[in-house]
Amino acid sequence: MLIDYRHAATPDDFDAHLCIVGAGPAGIAIARHYLDTAVRVCLLVGGGMAGDAETQDLYAGDSIGNPQLDPAASRLRAFGGSTNAWGGGCIPLSRMDLAARDWVPHSGWPISYAELEPHYARARDLLAIDGHDFEAGGFLSAPARRPPSFRGDRLVNRNFVLSPVFFGQAYRAELERAPNIQVVLHANVLELLSDAGGEHVHAARIGSLQGKRGQVRAHRYVLACGGIENARLLLLSNSSVPHGLGNEQDLVGRYFMDHPRGRLGTLHARAVTPLTRPYDRSGGKGPTPVFPELCLSEGAMRAHRMLSGRVRPVAVEGQVPRGIHAARRLRSALRKPRPDEGGSLEGQMSQALRFGSGNEAPPPPQENLARLALQLAPGMGDLARGMFNRLTDRPIVPPDHVDVVGYFEQAPNPDSRVRLGDDLDPLGQRRVRVDWRLTPLDWHTYRTATHLFGEELARACGGRFQADAWLHDERAPQLQGTAHHMGTTRMADDPADGVVDRNLRVHGVDNLHVAGSSVFPTGGWAFPTFTLVALSMRLAEHLRDCLFLL
After folding, report:
1. How far is CA 233 from CA 47, 162, 476, in A?
2. What DSSP letter does each residue of 198-246 carry, written as one string?
3. HSE on the CB side for 336, CA within 13 Å?
4. Element (H, E) at 433
5. pLDDT by residue (tens digit) across 303-320?
6. pTM here?
């Protein structure tokens, strides 16, 4: 059932067997596990069914690292979480991603791929991509366009699948109907209240922006509110233990990672379309299309002692012919305005996370239709050539060059961290401060990978690659995040190495667990949602045995 905590008739307090904080893919996956059971679940949502500016402001904070990262612009506080604006990419981690690598400090998961594999299979169903078989590191289905081959000791193609599932839309109805699940909207967790030693949580203190306050009392608690907010809530839970829950070793918030991305250089060649077309995410078949990613091979990573990474060769249009330019303006003028696209928080976030090639102009304003129609006449030849290109599966406008855009694994780094800042949010809670930092291993990876990708791509099309200058100036990295926040409550068997154990229970706290990518010890280059959903389903199965004994 859905409950709005802002309403006066809503009770202040709730009792449940399981309290889940956060209703993104992790929280929803866990809650669904208990549909039509005797387990009473309270699913707390720090927002409504869609994003709004007042609620989103609770995610604002400082960024003091290098590169910069805006903690409010890279996540969405609403039912469904950031999957309201995600791209849908799903791919499993590889065995190497999970293994300890002697050249990557602090690497290695306490669980193996074999332990994760059956939960990947269940996550595949939840993400509606069950028609695709997978193996460690990729899916086995063939993409619509076959990518070129490269030297296998350097580069490999790995296939990923696009999920059509937006969690807030797909699973709202069944959670709303479930008599044993309470979805409490606009209920922001202020603190987890524990005993004097911080060994047992007895309540979650909640509040609304309208001033309502209360508690949720449960037998078990799961934090599932993202790679930044999970750490922030543990640090804010400091009434009984001043350093925060689960933070005896000063590890909560450390090892913050994202997938740094940036243009590595440009490629010039006479014919680049056969090279770029397979990777441009067009031409996919069916509701769950498959596309390739061009990745560093495991052999190359071992040989050069570097992290994992992938690139997208992005074709940048040359001069747009007059007729096509006029047609695009006419099409834009004829389209009805979409007030939720870009104007909504979901649209703004989607736009902020898109990586453009630098030549994309904003949509033109509404123009005189008659004048635009007249401008089409002199350019009919351009339109005919553009249509022929489309029918022959080529770009409408021939590319001028190719931007080679890299996406990389980040090295686990205890100095890259999430802290509490000095400013307070409207709920009276300390805002987050993100100190995102790179290591020499990250820079070694960018430079070495740029050489390998550039050389192989140039060889494949008979072209010339020019690396960008920023790669040799560590003071000014031309990098952005991808909103894949990881590592701040990392998983480890030894409390000295991580915040949660292999079953995602917070070390030293008997009834508190954490779900989501914050538990990843390393992240590979892979989109994290498929793995975090698999881990969440594994956690739900583990908790089920505990809760059914109540």
Report:
1. 16, 32, 32
2. SS-EEEEEEE-TTS-EEEEEEEEEEE-S-TTHHHHHHHH--SSSTT-TT
3. 3
4. strand 430-435
5. 999 999 999 999 997 676
6. 0.90
